[in-house]
Amino acid sequence: MITKPPTDSATRAEAPAPLYEVHKKIHPKAVTGIFATWRWILVWFTQLLFYGLCWLPWNGRQAVLFDLVERKFYLFGLVFWPQDVFFLAVLLIISAYALFLFTAVAGRLWCGYACPQTVYTEIFLWIEEKIEGDRNARVRLDAAPMNGGKLAKRVLKYGLWILFSFWTGFTFVGYFTPIEELVASAMTLSFGPWEWTWIILYSGLTYGFAGHLREQVCKYMCPYARFQGVMFDPDTLVITYDEERGEPRGTRKRSADYKALGLGECIDCDQCVAVCPTGIDIRKGLQYECIGCAACIDVCDQVMEKMGYPKGLIRYSTENALAKHWGAKEILGHVVRPRIIVYTLILGAITLAWVWGLATKPALRVDVIRDRMTLAREVEDGLIENVFRLQVMNVSEKEQRYSVSVSGLNGIALMGDPIIQLPSASNKNVTFQVRVPPDAAAKGSHTIHFDVKSLTDSAIEVHEKAIFLMP
Predict the structure, then answer these.
(1) Nearby residues of 270 by Cβ (< 8 Å), 6 or more positions away
(2) Are the C-beta atoms of residues 67 and 73 closer than 8 Å to each other?
(3) pTM value?
């Protein structure tokens, strides 16, 4: 019996569906305009900060340095110790609230303008464009077979990417290892294991994410894209396509009367798709892949200008504004809503408290620890002695001399040199014997106080409580 071969439709029906969408390389087209300008301003601003701060000197040291070995973080005139982790926690809370506020007001501003993934992708794309040409030239180059010209361009592009990534990783490590020491080590490639690990790791991540993964980081790896929707509401400013103006879309001559042709203002040029770094079509509505870069707004405004149509077919607007045909005044009036006011008040209160905490951060810290090996003992002349260890931390930027005294019981005395000298941003452990007469107090524990006062600045002093044991 002769059997008929399966038809194409039957074969397709039996074939298993792919688990993942086949990735298509995106070549975003370069665009100019007000939002592109702002994006590049943020690129320059963030990168001047990142690459420049580690080279800025301050009081004979690096202005910004996170010294993990010494367990001290330097931020200009401030010195943070492990005990100051509270300030870091509050700073993270401030960052989270700021993210909530900006997202509730105008969507993914962080993603579109200041996220490191966006910033470095812009830089890498600029390098790629300078070497391989515009979008059409890059598409043709990808489709062309490998030859000498293509190989030379690829080697040059990847080489510059690697150099830039290495400099980025080197700068990152320069915030944890003093940059001058790092430069000296670079001359002989004598980095330590820690430096080698992080330079290679950070360089590799920069190269891979910004050079090759690009939009895949935003679409599949970044969690922010997934939970941004819960921070949007109908009055959030987002990038929108005015479907009522644009549809039905279609090509036409510039001189044609599109209304007579039964068309909307969208000429279906697909330029908004060509410039999108994640490859989406904004005309299909708000999508989680949209990072809010507004490149589609810039290019659409240029097309509308050439066609003689009003700008703003794609624009920042809100769901309610499109549905109710609001103008700028109504949109602004609904942007300032209870949710935004609450976020702003909370963010302002936390920020003010954080700044006040930094401004009033003590310049001296003292921890008193009683010696657990010798709780209490009788020494010469029948005196009762307890041994205490004082950890004195000079968290100021000046060298200090401190005097130590003790009080709280009759006849109490401090044995040893009561003067402590400490350089700026340093700490020292000092052991003191504290003695009292045997009849100074009853058996048991009693509260005493150590007073540590600066001899160079009368405003710096600490009154620390401790427990004295009577046998």
Answers:
(1) 281
(2) yes
(3) 0.83
Q: Could you give phi then psi for residue 355, rounded to 5 degrees?
A: -65, -45
The structural architecture, per CATH, of the domain 364-470 is Sandwich (2.60)
Count the Cβ atoms, other than its own, within 10 Å of residue 254.
10
Residues 128 and 260 sit within 8 Å (Cβ to Cβ): no
Q: Could you list the pLDDT tens digit for every one of the 471 residues in the chain?
A: 444 555 555 444 555 666 556 678 899 999 999 999 999 999 999 999 999 999 999 888 899 999 888 888 988 888 888 888 888 899 999 998 898 899 999 989 999 999 999 999 999 999 999 999 999 999 999 999 999 999 999 999 999 999 999 999 999 999 999 999 999 999 988 998 999 999 999 999 999 999 999 999 998 888 887 777 778 889 999 999 999 999 999 999 998 999 999 999 999 999 999 999 999 999 998 888 999 999 999 999 999 999 999 999 999 999 999 999 998 889 988 888 888 999 999 999 999 999 998 888 888 889 998 887 777 888 888 899 999 999 998 888 888 899 999 998 988 999 888 999 988 888 889 999 999 998 888 888 899 999 999 998 888 899 999 999 888
User: In 207-337, which ranges are continuous DSSP H helix?
Assistant: 215-216, 224-227, 243-246, 271-274, 295-307, 319-324, 328-335
The backbone torsions φ and ψ at residue 450, rounded to the nearest 5 degrees and listed phi first, read -100, 130
- Domain ranges in the chain are 34-229, 233-324, 364-470
Please name which of 143, 125, 144, 135 lies closest in space to residue 274, comparing C-alpha atoms: 135
SS3 268: coil
Alpha carbons 142 and 24: distance in angstroms, whole number: 12
H/E stretch holding 415 reads: strand 413-415
Record the tokens describing residue 386, joined without a space.
């307890």
- How far apart (Å, rounded) are the C-alpha atoms in residues 408 and 441? 10
